[in-house]
User: What shape does this take?
Amino acid sequence: MNIAVCVKRIPKTAEADIFIEKDGKDIKKDNLVFALNDWDGYAVREAVLLKEKYEGEVIVLTIGPEESKEVLTRCLAMGADRAVRIEAPSSSDGHLIAKILAQATKGQSFDLILTGVQAEDDGWGQVGVALAQLLGLPHASIVTHIEVENGKAKVRRELEGGIEELLEVKLPAVLTIQTGINEPKYVSLSAILDAEDKETKEVGLEEIGFTSKAPLDATIDQVSFPPTGKMAEILKGTPEEVVGQLTEIIKKKKG
Amino acid sequence: MLEIFVLVEHRQGQIRDLTYEMLGLGEKLANQQGTSFAAILLGHDVKSFAEDLATRAPKVLVVEDENLKNFNSILYQQTLSSLISKYQPCLLLMGHSALGMDLAPSLSVEMEFPLATDCIGLSFEGARLKATRSIYGGKVNASVSLRESKGYIATIRPGVFSPKMVGEKKGGIVMESSPLQGMVDVKKFIEYIEAPITGEDITQAEILISVGQGIGGPEHIPLFEELAKNLGGTISCSRPVVDRNWLPKERQVGISGKTVKPKVYLAIGISGAFQHVTAMQGSDTIIAINKDPRAPIFGVAHYGIVDDFQNVIPVLKEKTKSWK
Ligand SMILES: Cc1cc2nc3c(=O)[nH]c(=O)nc-3n(C[C@H](O)[C@H](O)[C@H](O)COP(=O)(O)OP(=O)(O)OC[C@H]3O[C@@H](n4cnc5c(N)ncnc54)[C@H](O)[C@@H]3O)c2cc1C
Assistant: This one.
């Protein structure tokens, strides 16, 4: 069972102060902490669990600049066998990303290709399913459970309202992995040190034979802070004062 | 005339609300472009759906096929690509949902139509589609231009656009023949799996103390449990809290969890992703505690406290001890 996992390095923005770049096309990223996309972490873990069960090899791929190596190292520490970094400028065009990944994976004998459902930063949720189409493979998205038997994967997809659907997908296939599919495992420092010895290949677009100069499907014209329409009334003061106001509100509203 | 297509979303015998929101948007865009819009209904035994949709759309295109009874992206894609080739719509709208996310990207590649996902705004500039998307966890909006094309696909965020109401005129229902030649064996629907009914029912609670990833770890759960006891409330949470096994699945509020409408919803360390917000914004009073003043949750909350929860919750717990 050979599995490729496509991963992305993303900036963590939930708790950070956000500033917009001068050209207005993106946020400033030099003050941000970067990490492996949460969804991709679950995908890598799932690939490693599948490998432990069915044997084979887990290869992680990322498209990105030099700095993306750190997330590959993390994936290797999580149990992936080798890593490939495709050097390319970052792009918010999911179709382009999918085309590059298709070029990098086609013709190789993967039984499964996993991606996260979406990336935390721009949340297109497009790459995995587009990649499947480009490779001519079946896919299932938002996957919460995988079982492999007789060249098929029985997978559960998450729908709305707590319902799931059970599907059968013929291998090779592309699956996009939902958070919570498995239990994340603590990655030890020694595992990270060992990971540095595993193979990480760095390739350029020409080396993988990617030559397309097709225009991008999507380009960002501008980013801006969302309009502050309706906003919460912010309670101010010391914690004691704030809690005083808060208890009054709760008392009144709970009836 | 290049129409706008709206893909009807239905599951287990029900049209999903998002469909009506997309019809509302489809009508608005059609008016802007001086064109018309149509509801695209794929399914089996869906006559009553077609009747309902005809009260809200000038045209309903129906493909009846027993193989379309349950959603299967491959069969949907085959059907849609044949309808698109026939009618050449300028835009196809579908939900940014479990259905749309499984279908839009592959159809977009096949048709060579640029795709904008999870849109919170859409407009045409001439014949070119522009989308507004909410990115970086809702902290920033992006205006996106799609390349020139004869057709586009967009997936629409649920809960953003006003639904299309029943109109006075009734639209026409057009039956299309199915292009499908039976099932496919590479992807097969087997069955739905309903969530087991266990444990606490958070939908019945009048006060929810809802915790998110911002509480940092399971070690803080007892603190919130005590607070819940004081307030006579129940603990609920966002998805990452369940993913990390800090609380069981039945406590999850959100699009893939439960929809709640308590009298008081106290959101602590929850950023306010749409998958969470759409399922709790009907609460009577929403209070958010978050240390980030730009957290999107403050856009839906009635009251907010911008602080570390560790400064606020212990004080609140002490102060409400006597309420029990
Ligand atoms: C198909 C799909 C389905 C999904 N379904 C759901 C669903 O049903 N329910 C759901 O909730 N999500 C769902 N999600 C996930 C959703 O997109 C978000 O990832 C999730 O809601 C974020 O959870 P959070 O707000 O707890 O965490 P984060 O976004 O990480 O936010 C944590 C917040 O805590 C704040 N914080 C940090 N430390 C402190 C502190 N000490 N004191 C106070 N505040 C602090 C931060 O400022 C931040 O705003 C779904 C996603 C997908 C793709």
